[in-house]
Amino acid sequence: MNQTATARSWVEHANGHRDFPLQNLPLGIFSRPGQAPRCGVAIGDAILDLEAALAAGVFEGAAKAAVEATRGGALNAFFALGRPARVALRERLLVVLGEHSEHQAVLQAALYPAGECTLHLPARVGDYTDFYVGIEHAKNVGKLFRPDNPLLPNYKHVPIGYHGRASTLRPSGTDVRRPKGQTLPAGQTEPSFGPCARLDYELELGIWIGQGNDMGQPIAIGDAAEHVAGFCLLNDWSARDIQAWEYQPLGPFLSKSFITSVSPWVVTAEALEPFRCAQPARPEGDPQPLSYLLDQRDQAGGAFDIELEVLLLTERMRDEGLPAHRLTLSNTRSMYWTVAQMVAHHSVNGCQLQAGDLFGSGTLSGAVPGSFGSLLEITEGGKQPVQLANGEVRKFLEDGDEIILRARCVRDGVASIGFGECRGTVVGAN
Ligand code: MN
Known about the structure:
alpha+beta, SH3 type barrels, Fumarylacetoacetate hydrolase, domain 2, 2 domains, eight-stranded mixed β-sheet, 11 helices, globular, binds manganese (II) ion
């Protein structure tokens, strides 16, 4: 595959684009004013309409079948086709969007400025599962409650997760209504009801499931990577005061299910191939994973090196024309379990995964200040406010605050690619 740093597109603004150069080619569902949602590919600041490109006759064979599977305003059927369809489409797009393409004239008419389009969720999500594989986050949060013993005893044996709520997944740009709920205010013995006072973000990697499995047929760890279609950014908005009161003994419930934001572009497993890396060695004394979670190929190349960033833009900063404040800079290398281990574990009991299911990684924090993926960790539960350049302070999010997630992959000799943004602005409770 032509993924070298030097491969160029005739779409000039794609060359050197921070997120969407020719080497990325993420898929998404977009619409133009008054038209039905359809599949597109991000290229620079434009979107290539695959249906229009198909009508122009640039696809045949397996690539044509792949495009036909993207119809209907959701990518579930395309995801279900697995890697061969993704590869066929990608290889053809690298040619027809490449600088020596014979199809420039016909495809020019199928390109729209991204700013004129609306982006939607890329698939109809049957089930959404949120994991907890960011070990530094687990330690940081554990420390707030158990300073001497931050990690619970199961953490290094089981990829921990909970079943989330698919119905409130929303694409980037959707406002985040401050939830109301039940909390136990500090120093009180009886709960109160009202707007969340400790609203937080969680920086996560989203994982789109490709081919599913039959109920009762676990996905073996060695096959698990074949069941992943692509990746996105995910903000697991969290109401910490509601969470603290409700979470025992069954885990998060209403503190998480009011909205979960996802970035609209599916960065395919193929585009991320150059940014795979070895799973960091487990520290001396950590247990080896059980055999159903252990695969040498996965250990050698199943992790990812993706730089992750969180920015905060308050209403006042917007009014004053100030740039966004960086809250977090971290990396997916802090995942204690690989994506393949998450897939293998999720299905090991016979649970059925289906094309278009979505996983969240769990909050991906680093080990040092500046790399924490939530305000809960940055402010130590609200004790150490964040100081902003214009004099504002934040313990948790206030109405009007916008959170922006970004991700970027950088490696010598390979074109850098990004994920686009996952944005959300907090609006007041009803
Ligand atoms: Mn989470």
